[in-house]
Amino acid sequence: MQTNANDVADIKKGEIFANGFWHNNAIFAQLLGMCPLLGVTTSAENGFWMGAATLLVLIASNLVVSLVRGAIPASVRIPAYITIIAAFVSIVEMSMNAWMHDMYLILGLFIPLIVVNCAILGRAEAFASKNTPINSLVDALAMGSGFTFALVLLGGVRELLGQGEIFGFDVFGADYPDVLMFILPPGAFIALGFILAGVNIINRHMQARKDQQAATLAQAAAPQTAEVQS
Amino acid sequence: MKIEREQWQMIIALLVVGVVCTLLLATTNIFTRAPIAQAERQALMNALMQVLPEHQNDPLTDARSITLQGDTKPTSFYFSRNKRNAITAIAWQVTAPDGYNGSIHILMAVHPDGSINAIRITGHKETPGLGDGITKNQAWLDSFGDKSLHNADWAVKKDGGDFDQFTGATITPRAVVKAVKKGLTNYAIIKGKLFRLAQRNRSEASHAN
Question: Which residues of A touch B26 (CB under 8 A)?
């Protein structure tokens, strides 16, 4: 993660993004929002649109919560945030019903359930209520796209293993037998387990590289202390 | 006094949030109401196109509602007509209340003589990979074609009837077969009334022309 060192504000936004998309990913790191994760990730496309709906709600709620953060007394902030989130979820739901009717029918009940996705209230409470609108927007973009990425990844794995397709395109040929386990909820748990293991491996590699860099830097500065770090 | 002021702040904050959100939702409702109705019409039209034979009329408007015995809500019957304005098929929605996982909604179309033209599943929550064969197994859906109360045993093969069940899923096809049979029975009862109403549609249409 190389960022321009001259622009301090840029580094911060890059950090917010990296945090939201990867290090603090709602699914991979925090294991939040499991309900839509298990329910709708039977295909990559369903996962994508569920993620997109969540992303839209997150952007709107983070922005508004950040804008009103000084005006709402701390004791009533949770009901106020939930009202704001519920309003945006309803707007997204009505819009999908109007302009994406087929997908609306598929995602069905999971759209209104975005209201209780704790990842969204969590961002309103933990980030947007304490940060500027711009930073909250970046955070929402990162969190939402990280969430979408996770849903598409899991949906893709389940679609591929369950039906031999990706985004509806045949990969394994028409003779591929539907593997029921991956289509049903247990498949979501199992696939998620393997994906989390993969994420942990990537994180460990990243950490090791970071340690190595730190070690070489420290070695350059003071050769004595480097041994302790490596 | 200080506590009172804080309470006012809370009340006003929640009130403002509530009112603004309500206004926002009301506005969205105004803008989406027509497109939603249009999308639902389109979805119904697409489904009707799949079950009705080729037609020269608009089945969406060439329709009549009848409240079937034992029902609380009226059912809409959609007619398809050929060039000579004769009814070629009638389509309507039936519900199988006893699916494996909730109700199964079926759109069925029958010829005037009471034999089936086609059926389609329009809504269900059956198990993916097992019960949802009712939407994916075209051969099974096609097996309903030209079946009537007189030329078929309306049960799955396991129960001694004419219709296949699926491996690992008997309840779902059984529920569909039962619901379609009930639809045919109802059709036999209301056929006379339905055709009188359809005749009225035809004369209204010719008046309009």
Answer: none
